[in-house]
Amino acid sequence: MVVVMSPGATDEEIAHVVARVESVGGEAFVSKGVERAIIGLVGDIESFHHLNLRALPGVADVHRISDPYKLVSLQHHPQRSTVWVGPEGAQVPIGPDTFTFIAGPCAVETAEQTLSAARMAQSAGATLLRGGAYKPRTSPYAFQGLGEEGLEILASVRRATGLPIVTEVVDARDVEVVARHADMLQIGTRNMANFGLLQAVGESGKPVLLKRGMTATIEEWLMAAEYIAQRGNLDIVLCERGIRTFEPATRNTLDISAVPVVQATSHLPIIVDPSHAGGRKDLVVPLTRAAIGVGADGVIVDVHPNPEEALCDGPQALLGNELRELAQVVRRLPPAVGRAAATVRS
Ligand code: PEP
Ligand code: MN
Fold first, then answer.
1. Which of 276, 287, 299 for a ligand 1 pocket mutation test, highest count of atoms within 8 Å of Cβ?
2. Burial of 332 (0-12, 13-18, 19+ CB in 10 A)
3. 60 alpha carbon to ligand 2 midpoint, in Å?
4. Which of 136, 168, 200, 314 is the most buried (most CB within 10 A)?
5. Which domains does the chain have, with CATH numbers?
6. What is the pLDDT of residues 63-120, one digit of tens each?
């Protein structure tokens, strides 16, 4: 923390700040410039907050220089983390050495639709299956998902395909039932700042996929991750899924720079959702290329056996030629940036 004194601050006022800092066990380093003095503080930042330094005579401003998040920061854990998803003996990595391809339907609609989407995903090279049983829709009249029945369908499709399941939880009361069926719990954009839900998934014992709030800054997103970490769960993967801007050509604006910005400050893996970012199937392949190029640890993509009939997000779902093209991109491009395909650890 740095305390900036006003230009006319007296020696007594400076000494008073120093004494207050030392009274809570901190150290204060005074540096006097031509115009004004600044005081660098070293010690426990929480105890400095209680001092109300901004209110002291002669103080012009107070700046925090260390990150407000701790457990998820690179300072706390200098190596980038790998999160393993799936049952013992069939775990899939998401981390710095590999590129993980997650695919599946936006929503679980029927057993047949989910199984055929899963087979499409698997034949395109996906090693994890996505699919929502609880759908957080903007409209309360839109399809809300099959709930527990959807979880059971996902579990049966995992038995049929061997693909571990990533699925969303929207309510803290459902965390237990979702964690019983799923391998990874997804927190969607609309719930990124639902702190009770974040704490509940932090206690679930399952890896968490934390999507960025559509209006959240990167710092707010990392603070949301800190809520999960603080409950003892550091198996967190971040997902950039586009933010809301003035541009109406795409559903959201993919903030591709979020990937290296996050990697410079946090050890958590980060993947990209090109489907929900663009909201258009023609953008999924180019945005996936961008994600690989910028250093993302994976992508999560919507596929559907019949997008025209999809109950949710049909316009962004891939099949046929587009999915074949995506499969080539995720197979060929990651090795060019030093990443292997994410295969199962047995
Ligand atoms: C989803 O992945 O199904 C979803 C609803 O995404 P988001 O929360 O990013 O809108
Ligand atoms: Mn969707």
1. 276
2. exposed
3. 48
4. 168
5. 2-64 (3.30.70.1140), 83-341 (3.20.20.70)
6. 988 788 999 999 889 999 999 999 998 999 999 999 999 999 999 999 999 999 999 9
